[in-house]
Amino acid sequence: MRRTLYRLMIELTNGRFTSYILRKFAQSRLSSIIIPSYAKVFQINQDEMEKGLKEYRTLHELFTRKLK
């Protein structure tokens, strides 16, 4: 269910308005709520991350993170 929702969010970026809304959400602190779930659903390798998962304040920070 969550995987479908996250994929739908990605597909919504095709439109100008929905892309704007999703970008604002990803850059907001509110997006930090879904970071653990997102990482679990998409099996993000946390061993490659420079910082711990809880240190990312926004989904945008997670997307643009530096790797080891």
TrEMBL record:
Protein name: Phosphatidylserine decarboxylase
Protein source organism: Bacillus cereus
